[in-house]
Amino acid sequence: MLQEPAEPKTGPRDATPGLPPKLFPFDPSLYRFTPDEDAFLDELQQAAFLYFWEQANPKTGQVEDRGPADGGAPRNASSIAATGYGLGALCIAAHRGWEEDAAVRERVKLTLNFALRTLPNQHGFFFHFANGESGQRILNSEVSPIDSTIFFCGALTCRGYFADDKEIAALATELFERADWAWMLHSGPTLCMGWTPDQGFLRSRWDSYSELMMMYLLAMASRTHPIPASAWTAWQRPRFEFNEIPYVGAHAPLFAHQFSHAWFNFRGIHDKYADYFANSIVATKVHKLWCLELADRFPDYAEDLWGISASDSEHGYAIWGGPPAMGRIDGSVVPCASAGSLPFLPKECVRVLQNLREKFGKRVWKKYGFVDAYNPLSGWGSPDVVGIDAGISLLMAENARTGFIWEQFAKNPEAAKGLELAGFQPNPKA
Predict the structure, then answer these.
(1) Does residue 159 lie within any of the structural domains?
(2) Distance CA 370, CA 69 (A)
(3) Nearest Cα to Cα of residue 1 among 198, 249, 193, 280
(4) How far apart are CA 355 and CA 39, in angstroms?
(5) What average pLDDT does the segment 74-89 reach?
(6) Per-residue b/e over 100-115, b at no fewer than 16 CB within 10 Å?
(7) pLDDT for 90-109, tens place per residue?
(8) Residues with Cβ within 8 Å of residue 319, at least 6 apart in sequence
(9) Is 153 within a domain?
(10) Which of 85, 191, 274, 374 has the most CB atoms at less than 10 Å from its CB?
(11) Could you tell me the CA-to-CA distances from 419 to 176, 229, 411, 415, 430 in Å, in that order?
(12) Taking the alpha carbons of 317, 323, 326, 327 in that order, is the dihedral positive or negative?
């Protein structure tokens, strides 16, 4: 989804097969949110859902890539990934009764119909950004397999949840089965990062650990245009270390450890390389420790205030985070960094989110919940909400509370087939 920065000086080495060490031996699924924490998360989720309800084009269902945090008319610049998260959000809203079931179903059908019949595609894959009303490509964006994957995940979640609705099931199935994953391999062992009408296939490939797991699992499980199962072993799993703590990492912000986990429930399973859920726990813990070590430069970072992922900044959209440090770190806090990690460190992440709301109030909390980023040192706050950031926050909050999105997505046979082809096995019992 994002271009990765250059490799750090302390370059990672390939991870050895096996499970990561039990550095933080606890099961986050055993944590129970207090009534106050649960009520707060419910409010966060409802506010985020309102973004997907109001910032979707009423004629097409396509969700804005970003929108004003205080609300306002859509800007007609939609993101196929934000639309995918929006489909997951619609399932949560119907389940929790935030909108009438009939209205939600109608929105789902509108969104899927437009994507299938009108939205431009190339071999079943969509452009990253499009005009929300016409569907035409904007910003010279690429046909993006990773962003299309997030859309497919949302569509399949709708197929799982609205299992009694034949129209939704048929639309979601046709959309997913139209995608020609073999074409996106472009005669290589790993998937290309994209395609453009003027340049053809991009030279970069999805060949190293990141948010790519959901994409490979669905591509291998495709009934119509699958890629070989050997593709699962073709991408690298670099080993990083921080304060002698090893984990499989990425040259990317924290979202790389979150996005696939929004849909696939990796708890209690592993392939021959790693337990990826345990790995994300370690990576999130390491990220927190790294933020705390930055407190000598940025005194706002503390036990209850940390978290940096790709987001808005005072200087524009920033690909920042760590470790190792990447981007122009300035003391900003990004709410989706902790919200997207709620299933991994529930107690610590909800503490950050509640502290943000309580300490900074209306400066960080607007109509759609948290603004995309806030700098306590300068007082700067983003005026916007970014769709994928609101999406990962909403879905991971629900998974941490109930596992609902995991449950609905798992109803699709493709989910189990992908995990099986990748060689996932239950973890040995302690």
Answers:
(1) yes
(2) 8
(3) 193
(4) 15
(5) 97
(6) eeeebbebbbbbbbbb
(7) 999 999 999 999 999 999 99
(8) 2, 3, 5, 252, 253, 310, 326, 327
(9) yes
(10) 85
(11) 17, 10, 13, 7, 22
(12) positive
Q: Tell me, what CATH number does 132's domain have?
A: 1.50.10.140
Q: Please write the tens of the pLDDT for every residue from 223-282.
A: 999 999 999 999 999 999 999 999 999 989 999 999 999 999 999 999 999 999 999 999
Phi/psi region, residue 243 (left: phi>0; alpha: psi -120 to 50; beta: rest), is left
Closest by CA position to 83, among listed 141, 140, 127, 142:
127
The helix/strand/coil state of 380 is: coil
d(CA 214, CA 191): 12
Ranges assigned E (strand) in 155-219: 195-196, 200-201
pTM (2 decimals)? 0.94
Residue corresponding to tokens 């979150």? 258
Q: Which residue segment(s) compose the domain that 147 sits in? A: 30-235+282-426
Q: What are 307's two structure tokens?
A: 């978290």
Q: Give residues with Cβ within 8 angstroms of 200, minimum separation 6.
A: none
pLDDT at 8 over 60: no
Tell me if 129 sits within 8 A of 141, measured CB to CB: yes
Burial of 14 (0-12, 13-18, 19+ CB in 10 A): exposed
Residue 192 contacts residue 219 (beta carbons within 8 Å)? no
The dihedral of CA 385, 90, 111, 124: what is its sign? positive
Helix axes 213-221, 145-161, angle to 10 degrees: 70
Domain annotation covers residue 24: no
CA pair distance 197, 242, nearest whole angstrom: 42
Neighbours of 30 (CB within 10 A): 7
Asked if residue 428 has a cis previous peptide bond (ω within 30° of 0), the answer is: no
The position carrying tokens 């039990």 is 22
267 falls within a domain: no
Give the span between the Cα atoms of 59 and 368, in whole angstroms.
21
Q: How many domains does the chain have?
A: 1
With beta carbons less than 8 A apart as the criterion, state whether 155 and 172 touch.
Answer: yes
Cα 158 from Cα 387, distance rounded (Å): 18
